[in-house]
Amino acid sequence: MQISNCHCNACHAATGHSYASWAAYPLSRTVLNVSSPLSVFRVNPASADRYFCGGCGCSVAMMYHLNSVWPEAHTVWLARHFAELTGNYDEVHIFNESDPTRPPAPSDLEPLPAEDFRV
After folding, report:
1. Most buried residue among 6, 11, 39, 77 by CB atoms closer than 10 A?
2. From first to last of its 119 residues, what are the pLDDT tens digits of the chain?
3. Please, are residues 7 and 95 in contact by the beta-carbon 8 Å criterion?
């Protein structure tokens, strides 16, 4: 399983942290059982939607639209705490260069260049 620690401005604003962590799951094998309805925020009409818990407001998922330039349009990106339940994942940092005031990625993780993740 892949975990992406995204440093883009949208993830920074949504979490109040220097990045948001997302775990990639196949959309066809993902079922969310939630006790509160999910709230949706459309990041960009052409690219993605963010889903938040309607009860507490925590990040739940991010889904890229099928017409998106994102390569994994059939993937749901769940908040990292779901991935930590499995204990089997690889981790990368993306969009580190989008804000030079943010701290660098940890030295044991190789950052991916922002141009590899255009949305």
Report:
1. 77
2. 677 777 777 777 777 777 788 877 777 777 777 777 888 888 766 677 888 888 888 888 888 776 655 555 556 777 765 555 555 555 555 555 555 555 555 555 454 455 544 43
3. yes
